[in-house]
Amino acid sequence: MSQQSLKSKREYLEQLLQELDGLREKGDKKAICTALTDLGLAHFNVRNYVKGTEAFEEAVQIARELKDLDLQVHSLGMHTLAFQTISRLPDAFNKADEIRELGIEHNRPEIICDAVTNQGQILLESGDQLRSLEKLEEARGIAYELGDKRRQMNVIGAYGQHSLTVPDLGQAEVYFDKALALAQELGDEQAENGYLGNRGMIYEWRGEFGKAAPIFEKVLGFVQEDGDEKAEIQAMRHLTKVYNKLENNEKVLEYALPGLELAKEGDVESAFILIEALIMTYYRMGELEKAQASTEEAIEMARSSNDRRREIRFLISLGEAFLAADDLEKALTTYEKALAGAKHINQDNDVAYLTGRIGFTLAELGKLDDAIPFHEEAIDMAQDGRMPSLEGQQLSMLSMAYLEKSDKEKALDYASKAVDVYKSAKLFEEFETAQALVAEINAA
Question: What predicted TM-score, i.e. pTM, was given to this entire model?
Answer without folding.
Answer: 0.77
